[in-house]
Design a protein that fits this description.
- The complex is a heterodimer of chains A (about 300) and B (about 475).
- In chain A, about 50% of the residues lie in helices and about 10% in strands.
- Chain A is an alpha/beta fold.
- In chain A, helix 3 crosses helix 13 and helix 4 runs parallel beside helix 10.
- Chain B has about 475 residues and is mainly alpha-helical.
- Chain B contains 17 helices and no strands.
- The longest helix of chain B has about 35 residues.
- Classes of the chains: A alpha/beta (about 300), B mainly alpha (about 475).
- The interface between A and B is medium-sized, with 32 and 29 residues.
């Protein structure tokens, strides 16, 4: 009788393992946005003098520098929603790949001081990074196993199973044309300053930002923190209390670490410089880049 | 150790296979060692608390059994109860009592009250209650004192039900621990399938629903009425799948080793009234309160006024058992009030079965708001804002329509599956009899876990109690 049960378990295990093996084989070449990003980074890292890093707010600048002629060698590690945990980990893990690196430009917002991807159940991002960092936000045994799986790295993207359609690089997720509407401003502002903001995470994020700054300083690399501007209507809908907490945390790191912060949110920019509520368009990026470039020359 | 961790997937087969390979005389040692290891995964030092209560209750059981005169028997019973309740109070309630005293009288330091920085030992309320049921039963003469310390320790520590029940009774569990167990194909096969179903409930349904629920309950004032309604309904299913999923895994894993644990749930959301609900929800706890608190208080034998008092007291204690906060006490009192209203008035109203089930579910779900909310104010805010809106049906912008739809599909799947179970129990006919269908069902469950499971090793809600 025990043998019978054992046979049944083996049969079930065999079927499950076979199914999993098939999925792993099917997803062996699946490219996550992180894979796209890291491939691009690795191509450029050896010559890079400037590293552009952070969340989606820096993507327009990356696109702009890619499409214009300038004298800078840049590399980028930027992804929609990239949090301070991953920024800190990636700095530690990639600095040795950039022997000529002089400056890091890191996009930070007050809201990023209360943000963490894992907290909002985006573990697949952790799994995507694991291949390049050997690090997980919460290294549970389950997550360590899943991070090694092609299928789970893809966030179980079943669309790929049937169509073979790859994920898009994060850079391409920001097309130039979009509209700024009152409603879109409200949604983005509430999303960033309320739904994705958790004040409990501020101490942890402060510490991560401090570590990141120190790591750069230890390697004689200048770090410039940049808060990119948002459309006028975005500010109207931000949660004032949470935003103030984020600003206070960010300023406290700037003071304690004596680092540079270029805060473009101190000034109101016209809507025609934005592609949406919180991302600049090419025209806006050109204007901001001029200021950043001036600061870099100091 | 969490049931939903890879460690358990290794632990369980190793413990089970070795259990059947070794001689009967040594099995209790093996199971006890395995149970200690299982418990020490959480916080090793807290095993000492378990050892302390085990030794006290073991000694108290023997001393009660050795004496024939009532005062001495009572003395040792009270000593044992004080030791168990004392441990509970120290680890679980001292800060709550301190804070309440300070809020009511201002006694204590001005400003912040000194708070003991203690982490609650996992499953403390469960094994304490299980231990107390032993000494009470010995005192009542329903149970012979257990003279084998190892077997008694295993009664308290048997790993499948150590941290979240079912809260076993000595009369049901101790004889099983003495019995020689032989491998039983039907029981083991049924146990494994039940474990698989428990994993589906926990990993696929409960943990998926928790995302929506946690988001809304973290800051309910920022969400519209629809989100509050959905979060409340989802939480009702989340807590059911989380806790009954745990019990399925516990009962199933015990079945594989030849043990039978008591049933803790009987499709409670199909209940037609609140009395039925409490006969089908967390049965081991509600029967514990019935046998050891409600009936000794006089039950319904001392007039209506006293009966109302007894009901409210028992449910208030039951709320407090769940957590050291006024939200839990309010939840308990609300359940008690439902029961009183139903007994006094509701039972006279005849409604179609479906309507009765829906009304009971709605009432229970509203009570869950107090269970889940962080504060009473938050719970009241949610209750008073459960207003449906035509626009924004999903209610939470960060939840995509497919993800929301998946939640609804899984709840539908759960309801249909439970309805089949109820039908099977009523008719005594198993709908899935042919082996090929059984294999397909098992494989389907594995596939569901693989494709839709949440693998973040989220703890079970009831572990905190």
């Amino acid at each position: 009788m025990a043998k019978k049960l054992f046979r049944e378990i083996l049969l079930l295990l065999f079927a499950a393992i076979a199914m999993f093996a098939l999925l792993e084989y099917r997803y062996r070449n699946f490219q996550t946005p992180v894979d796209h990003m890291m491939q691009r980074f690795r191509q450029r890292a050896p010559e890079a003098e400037i590293l552009l890093m952070g969340n989606s707010h820096i993507l327009p600048l990356i696109n702009y520098l890619d499409s214009t002629t300038h004298s800078y060698h840049t590399a980028s590690i930027a992804l929609g929603g990239l949090d301070l945990f991953w920024s800190a980990v990636l700095i530690k893990k990639t600095l040795n790949q950039m022997p000529k690196l002089k400056t890091v430009i890191l996009s930070v917002d007050p809201e990023s001081m209360g943000y963490n991807q894992s907290f909002f159940r985006q573990e697949y991002v952790n799994r995507s990074f694991y291949r390049y960092t050997d690090t997980l936000y919460k290294p549970t045994s389950s997550d360590l196993l899943l991070a090694r799986s092609n299928f789970f790295r893809s966030n179980r993207n079943t669309g790929f199973l049937f169509t073979g359609q790859q994920s898009k690089p994060s850079k391409e997720l920001l097309p130039e044309m979009k509209q700024i509407t009152e409603q879109s401003c409200m949604h983005r502002a509430i999303e960033h300053s309320i739904f994705r903001f958790n004040k409990e995470l501020i101490p942890e994020n402060k510490q991560l930002l401090e570590e990141l700054v120190r790591e750069c300083k230890r390697n004689n690399i200048r770090i410039l923190l940049v808060t990119f501007p948002k459309a006028k209507c975005f500010y109207k809908y931000r949660d004032p209390e949470n935003t103030m907490k984020g600003i206070a945390a960010l300023n406290s790191v700037v003071r304690s670490e004596e680092t540079e912060l270029l805060d473009f949110t101190l000034k109101i920019y016209p809507d025609l410089l934005f592609r949406d509520a919180d991302h600049l368009n090419a025209k806006g990026t050109k204007l901001i880049w001029a200021d950043i470039e001036k600061r870099l020359a100091d | 150790m969490l049931f939903n961790s890879p460690a358990f997937l290794l632990f369980f087969p190793v413990v089970t296979v070795i259990y059947f390979l070794i001689r009967h005389e040594w099995r209790w040692i093996w199971l006890l060692l395995a149970s200690c290891y299982f418990y020490m995964f959480f916080r090793p030092v807290y095993i000492l608390i378990l050892f302390f209560t085990i030794l006290i209750d073991y000694a108290a059981g023997i001393l009660i059994g050795n004496h024939t005169d009532k005062p001495k028997r009572k003395f040792w019973l009270v000593a044992s109860i004080i030791a168990n309740v004392g441990v509970l109070v120290f680890f679980k309630y001292i800060n709550f009592f301190n804070q309440t005293l300070y809020d009511l009288t201002g006694i204590g330091q001005t400003g912040t009250m000194p708070v003991l920085d203690i982490i609650l030992p996992i499953g403390l309320s469960f094994h304490t209650f299980q231990a107390m049921s032993y000494t009470i039963e010995v005192y009542r003469g329903n149970q012979q004192p257990e003279r084998h310390l190892g077997i008694y320790a295993l009664y308290v520590m048997f790993y499948p039900q150590l941290v979240a029940g079912p809260i076993e009774r000595p009369g049901h569990m101790l004889p099983q621990l003495h019995q020689r167990k032989y491998f039983d194909y039907d029981l083991a096969s049924q146990g494994l399938r039940r474990m698989l179903w428990g994993f589906v409930k926990k990993i696929v349904i409960a943990d998926r629903l928790s995302f929506y629920v946690n988001m809304v309950y973290a800051q309910p004032e920022n969400y519209p009425g629809n989100a509050l309604i959905w979060a409340t309904v989802f939480f009702a299913f989340q807590i059911y799948c989380d806790f009954s999923g745990y019990c399925d895994i516990a009962i199933g894993s015990a079945n594989v080793m030849g043990f039978n644990l008591m049933e803790n749930f009987k499709s409670p959301y199909f209940s037609r009234n609140i009395v039925e609900f409490w006969n089908r929800w967390h049965i081991s706890l509600s029967s514990w309160f019935r046998d050891y608190v409600y009936i000794p208080l006089g039950g319904n034998r001392k007039g209506t006024g006293r009966w109302i008092f007894n009901i409210l007291l028992v449910f208030a204690i039951s709320g407090l058992w769940h957590g050291a906060a006024w939200t839990f006490v309010t939840w308990g009192l609300l359940q008690g009030a439902y029961l009183i209203i139903y007994r006094l008035a509701g039972s006279k109203i005849k409604l179609p079965k479906e309507i009765s089930v829906l009304i009971t579910f709605a009432a229970v779900s509203v009570a869950w708001i107090f269970f889940r909310a962080g504060t009473i104010d938050q719970a009241i805010y949610i209750v008073t804002h459960l207003i449906p809106e035509m626009s924004n049906p999903i209610g939470v912008p960060l939840i995509s329509a497919p993800s929301f739809l998946l939640n609804i599909i899984f709840i539908g799947f759960l309801v249909v599956t439970e309805a089949i179970f109820v039908k099977e129990e009523e008719t005594g006919i198993h709908l899935i009899r042919r082996p090929v269908y059984r294999y397909a069902l098992n494989f389907g469950m594995v596939l569901m876990i693989m494709l839709f499971g949440i693998f973040e090793e989220q703890t079970f809600i009831y572990f905190q109690f």
